[in-house]
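TEACHING EXERCISE
Course module: macromolecular assemblies
Task: Read the component lines below, then compare them to the predicted structure of the full complex.
Student: A.B.
Group: 4
Components provided:
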Amino acid sequence: MNKLFAVIKKEYKTIVKKKSFIIMTILTPVLMAGMMVVPVLLMKVDRSDKKIAVADYAGGYIQALSAGPAKKGAKPKGKLDMDAMNEMPELPGRISFHPVQLGGRDAAGLLREYEQKVLKKEIDGLLLIPADVKSRRQVSYYSTSISDFTTLNFIESTLRTAISRQLLLERQIDPAVVDEATREISMETFKVKKEGTTKSDSGMDYMMSLFMIIILFMILINYGQIIMRGVLEEKTSRISELLISSARATHIFYGKLLGIGLAGLTQVALWILLAVILVSRFSGMVDAAILSFLTPEIAFYFVIFFILGFFIYAIPYAFIGAAVNTDQEAQQFASVLSVLIIVPYILGISALQNPNSTLTLVASLFPLFTPILMFMRITTAVPPLWQILASIGLCVLTIWGLAWLGAKIFRVGMLMYGKKPSLGEMLRWVRYK
Amino acid sequence: MSEWALSLHDLVKDFDGKRAVDHISFTVKRGEILGLLGPNGAGKTTTIRMVMDIIAPDAGRVEILGEGLSEKVKDRIGFLPEERGLYRKLKVMDTLLFFGELKGMKAAAARERGRRLLEQFQLAGYEEKKVEELSKGMAQKLQFITTILHDPELLILDEPFSGLDPLNIELIQGIILERRRKGTTIIYSTHLMEYAEKTVDSLVMIDQGRKVLDGTLAAVKAEYGRKFIRLQYEGDARFVAGLPYVRSSRDSGREMEIELEDLSKREQLLRDLLGRVTVNGFQLSEPSLQNIFIRKVREGAGA
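Instructor-supplied answer key:
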């Protein structure tokens, strides 16, 4: 047992003292925070100014457009808010409206003139508001780009509100009532969970799930490769002979897995700690949706599925390290294994839309896919507890089998030099005592 | 306690249908230095790997320190593999701690003894250096320290001198002799006969997987020594090899080592030489291990 601990200690210290470990531990949360914040900032900054000419035959709507739709109430500013994406119609940003001097010209003549201006990019678009807009409810917009939904939504909802107000005011209704009647509404989304319902943004949930899965995927591959290279180093440098002649192969193999696994766990724990510190320090800048997503429960499952995923993938990586002789051979086999890890990842991305489908359910119970897929389901749809427990149970059984097989392959493969072993040969190793 | 530190019984190992070790048996007495001699590819390393349980023999049995190779027994053995290897990224002291603990030592004891050995090997001050920063010779010395760190009862060294400069060879030889004075049993394999000659108590020679000779150094030398004539000459002495009572000869041009069927034929040989070559010197000689080795290997090869 002391020898097992000696191996665990050595493997753990070797990884934790590496510069790359320290850099990754600090950099990953920073990058992650950056990935969450930057798109929002970009969305805010990257709105190019828009100049729209308005030919207002009906009259009076240009003021309404410049004012924007009725506010639903003051919004706290200075927050990095994912909602901002959906609420852009409220923030006219840099859209400016310029009245066209009609001068008695008809729409057709105006259009010919302004088509040229649009093409020359003097203006971004022309909005034609016909005189009978109130009854026909029809306006026309001419632009080189008509896919700018933010702008289109803004114009539509503003005009709708303006017409409604006008109609109501014409009927002598109290302006205060009109204000009240034409206020915008907004919709908040809530996720219903057994533990309680929380405010949650669907887009935010999707992105956070994706982030967590990417991170899980990355560290599983990373630690798998660390094990593979470690085993290969021992094999090519013949340290394996010293190890085998000093301790039981099982102790060396399990010690290696546990030591490297603990190092991985340390990294995950540090990330969680850093996330807690960052969130509490800068809570004012973090969206409530992120806070509601990063529950202790999610962190707990992240750790659980990291551990399960680590063993499920690390042992095959160790097989590769023990069975091959050179780095190139190892990379060939490792890329095959990476594909096996990518499958649940890809399934996961599509399953994010539909986390409760039968395919997702079955795939998430398949031990090789469980760590990524079941975790993904937990972050989005909260599967029944029995499914979570069943998937964990299946994983543990698989790991138990892999570990038994791994120790045998490790014992023999570590000491086989020169030629690539055939599959039949590897099966014979398993029977070796 | 048996008087044998190690005994091999009829070990056999095949690789891909080729027999690498062919029914090898020998015993090593406690406290002696045994040299395992033979050319490259003779099966020395394979034999040692079977002793160390790195590969399993196809047939035969190894008894080590009175029992099979259990975990407990592994702690009492120091093993230096033929191909050296240490963790390149690990620091010198961490390397010693790891291998010490792997041999069942307490960390404090490993540190203390490691420090003393580093000093003895002129590596003091390198404790915090990484292995990859050491020169090749230093790494070799460090490897040797990991082998003797836990004060083993039995040392098994596979080609301990290969790749060392003469100064370090002296150093390692000194350590080997010092260990033996303390009662450690030492087995080492080598093809460098001149070093073996100076240190071993007994020897086993193997060639093409077979044991061709074993015994104490004194007995082996005595057996072969009496039948050898060392001849210094000028002229053409090729006819000597064809003489009926000459078992073998080794011609170096001006000196020839001649093995007779029977020592009583030496006068006959002298008579045959006179008149055909100029004889500058003619004496009975004790052959070097080198000569015995070469002769035995040639015999084995059917030459």
